[in-house]
Amino acid sequence: xxxxxxxxxxxxxxxxxxxxxxxxxxxxxxxxxxxxxxxxxxxxxxxxxxxxxxxxxxxxxxxxxxxxxxxxxxxxxxxxxxxxxxxxxxxxxxxxxxxxxxxxxxxxxxxxxxxxxxxxxxxxxxxxxxxxxxxxxxxxxxxxxxxxxxxxxxxxxxxxxxxxxxxxxxxxxxxxxxxxxxxxxxxxxxxxxxxxxxxxxxxxxxxxxxxxxxxxxxxxxxxxxxxxxxxxxxxxxxxxxxxxxxxxxxxxxxxxxxxxxxxxxxxxxxxxxxxxxxxxxxxxxxxxxxxxxxxxxxxxxxxxxxxxxxxxxxxxxxxxxxxxxxxxxxxxxxxxxxxxxxxxxxxxxxxxxxxxxxxxxxxxxxxxxxxxxxxxxxxxxxxxxxxxxxxxxxxxxx
Length: 398
Ligand code: FEO
Prior knowledge:
Layout: E1 3-4, E2 9-11, E3 14-16, E4 21-22, E5 27-28, E6 33-35, E7 38-41, E8 46-49, H1 57-67, E9 75-77, H2 83-86, H3 89-95, E10 101-103, H4 105-115, E11 121-123, E12 129-133, E13 136-142, E14 152-156, E15 162-166, H5 185-200, H6 204-216, E16 223-226, H7 237-246, E17 254-259, H8 265-280, E18 285-290, H9 296-304, E19 308-312, H10 322-334, E20 340-347, H11 353-363, E21 367-368, E22 373-376, H12 381-397
Parallel strand pairs: 8-9, 9-10, 10-11, 15-16, 17-18, 17-19, 19-20, 20-21, 20-22
Antiparallel strand pairs: 1-2, 2-7, 3-6, 4-5, 7-8, 12-13, 13-14, 14-15
Helix pairs in contact: 5-9, 6-7, 8-12, 10-11
The structure holds MU-OXO-diiron (FEO).
The site of MU-OXO-diiron has 9 residues, from helix 2.
């Protein structure tokens, strides 16, 4: 069902309640997602902004046909060519093959690379305008790396000003409601943060530049329509301000401890280190996660808003555990800034895991404060006191 947003704009996307992972299995989606597509009926031209993910292509086109005869769509704007937005394009363009597709030059290259079709591409740059009649228009704003090199925003100057921001300001959040003021705020904001941390944080310098650039344009803004999740209708600038904070080496007074454990020794170390941190810094939020049991993307989100992280693994086969190795690889990709870190873990004979973890954290750009803490076999009372002392020292180094 299409849903009316304003007099001239309808949502024609797809809510995907079933989605549990995104980017293959790289990203968990605890509350599903949506692929938002929008239909703008200007005084003279009607424009479709983005499509939906491929598995829903026929459903999307079928519902779009109920909304408008497809030959009355004057232009398709592809703000970003990733499959979750362009997946229904082949089915749509099969029916309206000559309709112009407005996209960046990189967008055209990516669409050609994905679908191998010689569609009617019209390349646009920042400041290019698509007139919709009677003074109404869409202005394009290139936004490379928010989320891919091809990404652009589109600004509609009608109805108080509407920014179509594609992935930026999005949330993987399925809802039957359209707007931010109609959903549980804390739940939705968690998904907005998880989205930023896991998808955009690596590109924070570009996010900061682009968001500042858009703010400096001083455009009238009644709402922000992202390509995932709910529309920012109530106080849309709140998410803009939040992005400026998140993009600026964001941290709260939190320390996150992620560990894996074969026979509980590394877990006992983690818990003793946590006690030490709390003793030294009672107000600091300390959270522990068994990386083999907990969701990797939720752990990364916790790390994203932490001032420091501790990563622990037993040594197994002269290495660290599968879960911690995977987590370290993801930490490297996050490009965290301004975070302290250290390694810990139990061992029986060779004890390489600390060094492997410390190296991984350093390669990920974290400030590793010391050589970490190793414990032979099962920690006894004295060893656990040493772990508590280590936690105290760690907290005091921050
Ligand atoms: Fe929602 Fe980068 O695609």
